[in-house]
Amino acid sequence: xxxxxxxxxxxxxxxxxxxxxxxxxxxxxxxxxxxxxxxxxxxxxxxxxxxxxxxxxxxxxxxxxxxxxxxxxxxxxxxxxxxxxxxxxxxxxxxxxxxxxxxxxxxxxxxxxxxxxx
Length: 118
Fold this sequence. Notes:
Layout: H1 3-11, H2 15-37, H3 54-70, H4 79-93, H5 102-112
């Protein structure tokens, strides 16, 4: 046994007090449970399902239609759009211009014009 274990063993309370405490808590719970089972339920506080009002239902339909027809922009995939996406991707990869050299960018830009609707 190490010095720390001896110190802890010497200064911790004896186990019989723990068992007495457990027994006391068990008895208190056994005595209290039957009274809890006989508790009355207030019928006025029971759950009632919630339904949307007419205005909320109408708003839901209007919002769904708006999202269905106007949520997405109708953009055709063109050389211009693919070039913009390509530029944004390069900006994401090397926004601080640390990793790619000008020669790398020249090579990459040759491919940029060939992307189209790929």
